[in-house]
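anyone seen this seq b4? input:
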Amino acid sequence: MAADLTRIEISRNVDIVGTKLAVTLFVIDHSKARRATCVRLLQSQREMRVIGESQSAAETISFISKVKPNIVLLDLDLALESGQLLQILRRESPRTKVILLTGAVSQARILKSLSYGVLGCIKNRDLASFLTTAVRVVDAGEAWVPRSLVSKILEQINKRLQQ
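predicted toks r here
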């Protein structure tokens, strides 16, 4: 069965920006318009390179395990469609970081995804303003989450420490 891939390149970090390798990204979103927005914003940055995009996460896992992008931008709805998707991604490409693309969703859904190792979360309406910054922050090993979630994250950590 052929994957519904819009584009895929089997190469990794071949573009050199100064002395640093380019950040490679893969975009997975059911919305063609949102994928196009992400690709346009990212390709405007010299140090970022989109190596593929897809509308379906499940069909893309094997490609991600081969190309091992630095970061996957993943539609939250697709991430939670299969409770195991984030775990599979983590197993197949453990160094790949994930940033969720979200609409108007509950904090509980985002927190659940963060508990699977997701390092970033950006609302769809904020893509134009913050996507490239979020990619830089997550690539540097830091988290990018809405401020409104920070207290909830700390509460969950505190509960786990008390158990």
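Helices lie at 32-43, 61-67, 76-81, 85-92, 107-114, 127-139, 147-162. The chain has one domain: 5-162. kinda curious what u guys think
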